[in-house]
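Chain A, query sequence.
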Amino acid sequence: MNIAIIGASGFVGKNLTKYLLENTDYKIIAISNNLDNIIVEEKYKNRVNKIKANVLIYSEIKAALISTDIVFYLVHMMVNNKDDFYEKEAIAAQNTGKAILESNIKRVIYMSGLGNDKEKLSQHLLSRHNTGNILSKYSKEFIEFRASMIIGVGSISFEIIRNIVKKSPIIILPKWAKTKTQPIGLGDVLLYLKSSIDVKINKSEIIEIGGKEVVSYEDFIRKYSKFRNKNNIIFCTPLLPERIAGLLLSIFTPKDQSSVGQVMLSSFRNEMIVTNNRAKELFPDIYPRRIEDFFI
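Chain A, predicted structure.
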């Protein structure tokens, strides 16, 4: 079976490529506009075809998907398109969807974000859900996973917290730090993604996934601070504007992370927890682990 991973140079994409090579016999088509970030061990190189393609150019993504059975869509554009990522992500999804429609692709699997569509969502979450809506119209079988923070090296939201805990002895949090979230470990995400390749579905599915615990962002930071044996002074105040929080973020985190983090801050106002049992129904053998099991 030929598995295409669109966005193979990103955080989830790189880890999924490695995971599938180590745990399956599938052939991988690693698609990205930046192939330098896709590192493949020598023993797996005969199973990987790296293709440079820009999802904003229809002809390129169409050519990249020739002879593909399953597609993982893991594209995120906030890093390079901070001001207009919503429009760019919509164009990318439409281009990919049209290419999928003209192929023999059996299934599309997409990684999105948690958040209740009936609430006022941030631009980041609106774009994630809009991308899913677009892709679902072009796919015979479509799975949209929705998750909160993914805990693992390279996850921007997790790396931001790692840097703040490491570098800032006093951590002042805005009022959104009381918002509930349900982080999930990278290992569990990869297991869900691998299992979704052949799970039986009769229609398009939106599957919410999360870890074992529901916590506030403040609680999460306290747990991580304790794990790292740090004595950070942590407190939450409603007097800290989001704009100022974004500026503080830029002090303690690398430029590429803080740029995306400032866009993501507005998403922290939205509660991101699992609201249904669909993941358990479709994947009864997956038992998400504790937050601390993935701390590094």
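The domain at 2-152+183-211+272-294 is CATH 3.40.50.720 (Rossmann fold). The radius of gyration is 19 Å.
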